[in-house]
Amino acid sequence: MNPIIDLRSDTLTQPTAAMRSAMAQAPVGDDVWGEDPTVAQLQERSADLLGKPAALFVPSGTMANQIALLTHCDRADEVFVGEGNHSLYYESGAGPAWAGVTFTVVGRHGLFTAEQLVDTIRPHDQHFPRPRLVTIENTHNRSGGRVFPQSDVAAIAEAAHSRGLSLHLDGARVWNASVATGTPPATLCGPVDSVSACFSKGLGAPVGSVLAGDRDFVARAHRYRKMLGGGMRQAGILAGACLYALDHHVARLADDHDNARRLARALSVVDGLRCEPTLVETNIVVFEVTTHSAADFVGLAAKRGVKLAALDQTRVRAVTHLDVSAADVGEAAQRLSKI
Ligand SMILES: Cc1ncc(COP(=O)(O)O)c(C=O)c1O
């Protein structure tokens, strides 16, 4: 059979030879002792890029989001999230378990407006959890890599701040949002109090995320990282891959976005699939299957050498990334059209 085309996630990328070489050459020290120069460099550079005074290197986006909850909230506080947000949907119930927070969903399909947020916030009353934090996701994974409109981010920040709530951005793919809109990450993050950003998604690093915010926030986050076992030793080997990714793999995200649109256009004319190319803004294509369950379709696709992920009963996700070419998406669409 022809080589497998793996469109399950942009986390599946293999570190390139040049990235491995950058990792091998990175100067290192014990980062728990604050002595790893490459981690320090990555933290400074990330803080700068994200427009925040400080940043903390952590092993994963999940840990960054969990530390954000712990740092912003007290137990039993209420956190407002979009439908399907990663911290609600994909973090194994960690928010309620570790930070003790209650999640309340705002709006439908992940993105929401300030008006929807305001309508969802209940008045102060002893019966209700204390409203404390709003979390938005940009780009939004389960909604198909949608970019959160910046005017909504600004209005949500205003609504949150005027009610004493903080705003956290899960920016695992903020780099994609930046490339898709031509807006610097620092501008996208301007209205938010904290941001988590990943190097191990479209940027192709094997490990690593940062959590950025003001200096006091990051100092408190540092303690939670230690409590969760996220203090790493000669982590410059990993930070070196992330620095390499920032230098070499950001601008090329535009190729992934082009490939995603190419795939969506090809799938939109296949009988039995519903795919709307105009909804594809970044590297994620979500389409509906009308002839099979999503799980059955994913199984049949795998037999034809195309790996996909079922999102629910009917919806399937395909993600383009560093290891997927324009020719691969053409070939993938061909194979899928034969099911
Ligand atoms: C939007 C979003 N946030 C956070 C994460 C968690 O990242 P990690 O897998 O590094 O824990 C992911 C993972 O795919 C994600 O899509």
Give an account of the 3D structure.
With 339 residues, the protein is α/β, with parallel strands linked by helices. It folds into two domains: 17-248, Aspartate Aminotransferase, domain 2, CATH 3.40.640.10; 252-337, Aspartate Aminotransferase, domain 1. It is built from 14 helices and 13 strands. The strands form three sheets. A seven-stranded mixed beta sheet has the order 2-8-7-6-5-3-4, sandwiched between helices. Strand 12 (309-310) and strand 13 (315-319) form a beta hairpin. The model has no long low-confidence stretch (mean pLDDT 97). The structure holds pyridoxal-5'-phosphate (PLP). Residues 11, 60-62, 65, 86, 137, 141, 170, 172, 198, 200, 209 line the site of pyridoxal-5'-phosphate.
CATH homologous superfamily annotation of the largest domain: Type I PLP-dependent aspartate aminotransferase-like (Major domain)
| Contiguous runs where pLDDT drops below 50 for at least 5 residues | none
Number of domains: 2
Average pLDDT rating: 97
What is the total tally of β strands? 13
Distance between the termini: 16 Å
User: At the third CATH level, what is the topology name of the largest domain?
Assistant: Aspartate Aminotransferase, domain 2
Level-1 CATH class name of the largest domain: Alpha Beta
Helix count?
14
The gross shape turns out to be globular
In this entry the ligands are: pyridoxal-5'-phosphate
Roughly what percent helix? Answer: 40-55%
Summarize the biggest pleated sheet. 7 strands, mixed
